[in-house]
Amino acid sequence: MDLLTQGLLGAGMAQSGARRDELRLATGIGFFSGLLADIDILIQSENDPLLNIEFHRHFTHSLFFIPFGALIAAFLAWFFLRKRISFKRIYWFALLGYCLSGVLDALTSYGTHLLWPLGNTRIALNIISVVDPVFTLILLVAVILAFKKSNGMAARSGLLLVSVYLAFGWVQLQRAEVVSERLAMERGHRMERFLVKPTLGNLVLWRSVYLANGRLYIDAIRIGLFSGTRIYPGESIELFDPERDIGDLPAESVLAGDIERFIHFSDGWVALWTERMRQTEILIDVRYSNLPITVSPLWGIEMDASQPGQHAKYTVFRDASSETRKKFIALLMGQNMN
């Protein structure tokens, strides 16, 4: 999730395992340790645009890296705190702060390499969005109360509440998946695979993508708390087929390698899309969009088949226009889209 939430979760975990007299120090150590896993975002290369997305939320988020990540955090904290608290206690708080960083990211729609090096699959359970203000607010209030009162009970209560919130997210996901499967059946589609994920900042509006007959079908599903379910039919796009779409590209070329890497990163949910402003063909990750009913992507790679020896260009598409925000809010509120 976002850095603030990761830090707050780390702080809350450390507070929950601290004595009253050391709780405030534990807060800082846990917050710092919760952030440290995301240091992999610094892994990037000017010569290889895909290196960053390939290694962000990678080995530093693995369950097997937790003891080492906590040790790094503890050594860094010990440099400043060695006269106030023992290294043993610093490591304990760092371990608590670090231990759920990867797990939390695995619960999101972006996912992480939680089981590296046993596997290279990015685990994304789609229970919660990468940014969720309700989840963050619960942690923030709990951490502040625990810090002010030097009482770990407030932190433990906050951790319990966010666990309940995650359980609610899981229930919402199951409900949305049932709707997605039923929708495909009503259309007469044989669903080959499907994905349902929460949209940004909520557990009410979900993006559904499923594959049938070589096409990806996109819909928004609103699972209301009290107002029932509503489906917003979306767009569809042809699934990318390497043999059909880039059959002439040398298999051992740099560009072919980048395409394969991007397909792996996107878990196969890729399609060719034309960027209308430049009439450029781009391989996009269909899982993500600014609106849950459109194909228009959040990111993709520009491919120039005439230069197979050159890396693909990684491109991010941000649409913060007022029109897009209004449409998203209308979907979130269950309003008609006319």
Topology, pairings included?
Elements: H1 3-16, H2 23-36, H3 51-55, H4 66-81, H5 87-98, H6 101-106, H7 133-149, H8 152-186, E1 193-198, E2 205-212, E3 215-223, E4 229-238, H9 242-245, H10 254-265, E5 270-275, E6 280-285, E7 299-302, E8 313-316, H11 322-332
Helix pairs in contact: 1-2, 1-5, 1-7, 1-8, 2-4, 2-5, 4-5, 7-8
Structure description:
Helix 4 packs across helix 5. This protein has eleven helices and eight strands. The strands form two sheets. The chain has a four-stranded antiparallel beta sheet, with helices on one face. 43% of the residues lie in helices and 16% in strands. Strand 5 and strand 6 form a beta hairpin. It has three domains: 167 residues, no CATH class; 67 residues; 80 residues, no CATH class. The mean pLDDT is 93. The chain is α+β, with helices and mostly antiparallel strands and 338 residues long.
